[in-house]
Amino acid sequence: MSKVRRATPDDADVLGALLWDFNTEFETETDDADVLAARFARLLALDEVVAVLAEDGDGTPVGFAFLSLRPAIWYDGPVSQLEELYVVPELRSQGIGTQLLDLSRRLVLEVGSPEMHIGVDEVDVDTRRFYERHGFRNIEDGVDYRMLLYIGPTGD
């Protein structure tokens, strides 16, 4: 069983490397690990961010979760958004993802978050099953649809 704990700014380099591994595994455009680490160092100091790190018995990092919290008009507490959850490929299906998710849920609940949002690509069947097994549901029961994300500039 892995040890799972809340990450601190001291873990920024490790989280940057894990996110780089995650992005390159799935051939997603990414910044270098050192750039990601610098961003993690800045973000982990914020109250609106929660990160969780999984390590094996030797202290080797084997996965992480990263969440953001945002105010919501519909709740007294913030809504949490699971931005990333990653387990190294050779250790998947061993309960590490569940450990990361469980601690993440406890930590955001402690700060009053009543609801967690997770974006999952329609074609990512294994990931969808994982979250459904943990009580998450597609907001349109029984409907499979593409997740659309619109990105645009904040100025002219």
TrEMBL record:
<feature type="domain" description="N-acetyltransferase">
    <location>
        <begin position="2"/>
        <end position="156"/>
    </location>
</feature>
<keyword id="KW-0012">Acyltransferase</keyword>
<protein>
    <submittedName>
        <fullName>GNAT family N-acetyltransferase</fullName>
    </submittedName>
</protein>
<dbReference type="InterPro" id="IPR000182">
    <property type="entry name" value="GNAT_dom"/>
</dbReference>
<dbReference type="InterPro" id="IPR050832">
    <property type="entry name" value="Bact_Acetyltransf"/>
</dbReference>
<keyword id="KW-0808">Transferase</keyword>
<dbReference type="InterPro" id="IPR016181">
    <property type="entry name" value="Acyl_CoA_acyltransferase"/>
</dbReference>
<dbReference type="Pfam" id="PF00583">
    <property type="entry name" value="Acetyltransf_1"/>
</dbReference>
